[in-house]
Amino acid sequence: MAPLNTATTLALRRSGDRVAARCMNPDCSNQCRFSGSKGRPARFCSDLCRRIFARNRERILADLATIDSAWDDPEIATGRSNELRTARARSVWMLDRYGGA
What we know:
The protein has 101 residues and is mostly helical. It has a domain at 47-96. The protein is 50% helix and 12% strand. It has four helices and three strands. The chain has helices spanning 6-11, 47-70, 74-77, 81-96; strands at 13-15, 18-22, 31-34. Strands 1-2-3 form a three-stranded antiparallel β-sheet. The chain is elongated and about 55 Å long. The two termini are 33 Å apart.
């Protein structure tokens, strides 16, 4: 078996037979436990965290769609290309924390 890399080692903690990892919601610092039982492993510490994650991700995607459509409107795009580029880069950066596009 190959040794764990540093990122994996830092992301996982052993507690007896249980493995814990940080909640997938970037705004949450709680831990999720992998119990090894049937079903899908938990990605979020709670249903509320999962819903917040999904809502934030949808908002970022909607922002990206709005920014991308602004390029098609000459009244908006003219003279504001740097602002649009920066807004798009920021949204893509944030989306990375929410699983990407």
